[in-house]
Amino acid sequence: MTDEQAAWPPPELDFSKPTIARAYDALLGGKDNFAVDRALAEHAIANIPGLVDSAVENRKVLVRGVQWLAQEAGIDQFLDLGSGLPTVENTHTVAQSVNPDARVVYVDIDPLVLVHGRAILAENTVTKVVVGDVRDPATVLAHEDVAGFLDFDRPIALMLVGMLHYLSPDVVDDVVATLRDALVPGSYLFMTSLVDTGLPAQQELARITRENLEEGWARTPAEIEHHFGDFELVEPGVTFTALWRPDRAVDAGNLTPGEQLGMAGIALKKT
Ligand SMILES: C[S@@+](CC[C@H](N)C(=O)[O-])C[C@H]1O[C@@H](n2cnc3c(N)ncnc32)[C@H](O)[C@@H]1O
To answer: Ligand 1 within 6 A of 84 CB?
Structure first.
């Protein structure tokens, strides 16, 4: 028996309550979740029309966004904050399919992400996985596998994908500003968030999330744009995720309920 097997389950994992990463994995039909996570996912699915579709759309826009950043913008460093559990196409697989030398650092608060990440990335020398709390951005940025692995004197794509809505109103301004300030011109900020455009399901999802996972805040499109600061949004700006550079025909006037839960945007730091 190896040390890693002997330590399973790692003592820091708590199976008595759901976590965001595991519940999201359950929504996406993954295997890295437990009964409590599946119960929460089922409760949310029963109450929020199109919830699974919206999680799938979020993953799809993550892939399109990373592809665009690596291919069109020539970015070769990615700091993926709130990265979640590995799924089918991940930031490093997408970025490194464009540029095999692209460096990727995943940061997540859930220790299970580190357990799985380490196993998957054992052979990959250009990708790191770090356990960290984005609400403490200075500590995350100073981590040796962040500061010592990415070159902050060169452009970086900083990702808060499916993550912004877990930052409470008390901290979100300071956290995102600290992260923006850490980047040099030529860098990009890529964010997606649960949105509030006035549909009841959006605030209801935020409420269910807060009730069960402590954090969860639906933000208006203007609030999401505000968190890009003075960065310049690339086309098409902040849009519903399905409408951000889609790779299929999407009828903007006829979006499904699931397509109206999240918005996405990428912006360039110019100065
Ligand atoms: C909905 S998942 C999104 C995963 C992935 N980025 C995606 O878009 O598919 C949100 C992730 O953010 C992580 N997370 C939530 N709050 C966090 C925090 N304060 N610091 C770091 N990670 C956090 C959760 O553990 C979870 O893995």
So the answer is: yes
Helix then strand count (H, E) for the chain reads 11, 8
Residues with Cβ < 8 Å from 219, sequence gap 6 or more? 164, 165, 193, 194, 195, 196
Whether the CB of 40 sits within 6 Å of ligand 1: no
pLDDT value for 8: 61
**Model's pTM, two decimal places?**
0.96
Residues 126, 49: contact at Cβ < 8 Å? Answer: no
- Residue 5: pLDDT over 80: no
Residue nearest to atom 3 of ligand 1 (CA): 162
State how far the Cα of 82 lies from the Cα of 106, in Å rounded to an integer. 8
**57 three-class SS:** helix
In the chain, what are the domains?
Answer: 50-199+214-268 (3.40.50.150)
State the distance from the centre of ligand 1 to the C-alpha of 163, rounded, in angstroms: 5
Question: 137 alpha carbon to ligand 1 midpoint, in Å?
Answer: 14
Q: Which residue's CA lies nearest to atom 14 of ligand 1?
A: 82
Cα of 18 to ligand 1 centre, how many Å? 13
Residue 118: pLDDT band (50, 70, 90) is confident
Element (H, E) at 179: helix 172-181
Is the beta carbon of 78 within 6 A of some atom in ligand 1?
no
* Tens digits of residue pLDDT in 208-241: 999 999 999 999 999 999 999 999 999 999 999 9
Helix (H, G, I), strand (E, B) or coil at 45: helix
Pocket lining: 130 vs ligand 1, CB cutoff 6 Å: no
Residue 63 has pLDDT above 50, yes or no: yes
| 267 Cα: distance to centroid of ligand 1 (angstroms) | 20
